[in-house]
């Protein structure tokens, strides 16, 4: 198979960006090449030029884009990842929203886990919320919307089965309370958590799909925006802002920032963590 030359790197990079918003810089050419090689082999194609034409003109191109997204997305995740952020959610942000909603006699809670990978984040959030609601849990209608561009990760999340290694950072209390150990040695999420989490495919570049995401009290989009350029970040964060309820919280990665992206949110500082809030004048 001929190597990926500069011309076809640019063509393939641009079509990936157009469809997904994911950006590959020149210094990531080798990474894109290695990932695309697997797709060429799967399609029995002989060159990157053939693959480019396949993505442009073949009737099966949408099916191939799904497979391509499975190949090129980074799916590093774990339960209880970035504990300072989760502690801020558990101890400050979540009680704040619960108190505001209780005062209004509103017992609905909606959380968006954007780019959820294989489900560890939304299930982590579900456990934290159940513990926070305690004896009042049955009074609340909780929905956690979890989406990703990688269909294979979504299927894993729906199955809710994880290895013991994947559970390594989870407190034993949560493991015993919310998981069942299978004969294989893996662990399955219990139904009480699974009924709260709804997985579905979503491409951030799909403006219509993003616009359908509404009425969110919390949005988690952690360690994702780093893969996009500034223009894409601006577009996506506007959708997140529109989807968030007044006084809602938006969590991004601990090393990420919206400084050069948007001024719409108000920064909320926590011990060893931060989030962004949607503050409407007169709402505080």
Structure report:
By secondary structure, the chain is an alpha/beta fold. It has two domains: 6-72, Chemotaxis receptor methyltransferase CheR, N-terminal domain (Chemotaxis Receptor Methyltransferase Cher, domain 1), CATH 1.10.155.10; 83-277, Rossmann fold (3-Layer(aba) Sandwich). The chain is built from eleven helices and ten strands. A seven-stranded mixed sheet has the order 6-2-1-7-8-10-9. A hairpin with a 2-residue loop joins strand 9 and strand 10 (273-277). The longest helix is centred in the N-terminal third of the chain and has 21 residues, at 83-103. The chain is globular, with a radius of gyration of 20 Å. 33% of the residues are buried.
Count of individual beta strands: 10
Biggest beta sheet attributes: 7 strands, mixed
Number of domains: 2
The neighbouring-strand order within the major sheet is 6-2-1-7-8-10-9
Nearest-integer average pLDDT: 94
Output the structural class.
alpha/beta
- CATH superfamily of the largest domain, by name, is Vaccinia Virus protein VP39
Report the top-level CATH class of the largest domain.
Alpha Beta
Number of helices: 11
State which percent range the strand residues make up: 15-25%
* Unreliable stretches covering 5 or more consecutive residues: none
Q: Percentage of helical residues?
A: 40-55%
Radius of gyration: 20 Å
Q: What is the CATH architecture assignment of the largest domain?
A: 3-Layer(aba) Sandwich
Order of helices and strands: HHHHHEHEHEHEEHEHEHEEE
**Shape category:** globular
> Cα distance, first to last residue?
61 Å
């Amino acid at each position: 198979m001929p190597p990926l030359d500069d011309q076809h790197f640019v063509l393939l990079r641009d079509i990936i960006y157009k469809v997904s918003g994911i950006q590959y810089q020149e210094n990531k050419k080798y990474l894109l090449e290695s990932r695309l090689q697997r797709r060429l082999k799967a399609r029995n194609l002989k060159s990157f030029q053939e693959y480019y034409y396949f993505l442009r003109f073949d009737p099966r191109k949408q099916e191939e884009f799904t497979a391509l997204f499975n190949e090129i997305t980074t799916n590093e995740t774990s339960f209880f990842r970035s504990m300072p952020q989760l502690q801020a959610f558990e101890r400050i942000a979540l009680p704040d929203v619960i108190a505001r909603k209780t005062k209004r006699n509103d017992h609905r809670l909606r959380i968006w886990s954007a780019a959820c990978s294989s489900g560890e984040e939304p299930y982590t959030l579900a456990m934290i919320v159940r513990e926070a609601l305690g004896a009042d849990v049955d009074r609340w209608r909780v929905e956690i919307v979890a989406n990703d561009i990688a269909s294979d990760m979504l299927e894993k999340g729906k199955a809710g089965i994880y290895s013991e290694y994947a559970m390594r950072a989870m407190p034993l209390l949560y493991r015993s309370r919310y998981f069942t150990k299978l004969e294989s040695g893996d662990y399955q999420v219990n139904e009480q958590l699974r009924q709260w989490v709804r997985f579905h495919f979503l491409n951030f570049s799909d403006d219509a799909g993003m616009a359908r995401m509404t009425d969110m009290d919390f949005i988690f989009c952690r360690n994702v925006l780093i893969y996009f350029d500034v223009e894409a970040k601006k577009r996506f964060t506007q959708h997140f802002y529109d989807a968030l309820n007044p006084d809602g919280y938006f969590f991004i990665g601990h090393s990420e920032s919206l400084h050069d992206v948007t001024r719409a949110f108000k920064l909320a500082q926590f011990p060893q963590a931060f989030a962004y809030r949607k503050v409407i004048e007169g709402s505080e």
